[in-house]
Amino acid sequence: MLESQEIQEIIPHRYPFLLVDRIIELEVGKRAVGIKNLSINESFFQGHFPGHPIMPGVLIIEALAQVGTVAILKMPEYNGYLGLFAGLDGVKFKRQVIPGDQLRLEVELLKLRKTFGVASGKAYVGDALAAEGTLKFFLERMNPAQ
């Protein structure tokens, strides 16, 4: 299990854009399961939507990507890299995610060839599927000065 501080040692995301609180399962280079606990204090709930807060779908997909990135960047050969979107396929949103929900983010790496990869992601609230899709990404070496 990885806590927030350990996650931040692997991926460069920080508040308010770090969307993973904990990694509860990890098979380096293969799969990861993460948790995002949602409270009304999330900055995006202020404007999406006032009086009817819903987590934006793009942020659910970003949270999935962050979980998948942890599984890849824990591989020694990708130390110092950054994961970036190359595309999305078959993304579907099945359930609204609201304050008080706990989002379980499951990502499985399907293909990784040098600096390009494909992963399958599913986000759940309890046993209910909230979102799913295929994430395509590329890996880029981070500038050490950043």
**Terminal Cα separation, in Å?**
27 Å
CATH superfamily: Hotdog Thioesterase
The total count of helices amounts to 2
Order of helices and strands: HEEHEEEE
- Oligomer kind: single chain
The portion of residues assigned to helices is 10-25%
Text of the CATH class: Alpha Beta
How is the main sheet built?
A: 6 strands, antiparallel
Structural class: alpha+beta
Shape call: globular
Describe it for me?
The protein has a six-stranded antiparallel beta sheet, covered by helices on one side. The mean pLDDT is 96. The chain contains two helices and six strands. The protein is of the alpha+beta class and 146 residues long. Helix content is 16%, strand content 42%. It has one domain: Hotdog Thioesterase (Thiol Ester Dehydrase, Chain A), CATH 3.10.129.10. Keywords: Cytoplasm, Lipid A biosynthesis, Lipid biosynthesis, Lipid metabolism, Lyase.
Topology:
Elements: H1 4-10, E1 22-27, E2 31-37, H2 57-73, E3 81-93, E4 102-113, E5 116-125, E6 128-141
Antiparallel strand pairs: 1-2, 2-4, 3-6, 4-5, 5-6
Name the descriptors.
Thiol Ester Dehydrase, Chain A, globular, six-stranded antiparallel beta sheet, 16% helix, alpha+beta, single chain, 146 residues
Structure described in brief:
The chain is an alpha+beta fold. The protein is 16% helix and 42% strand.
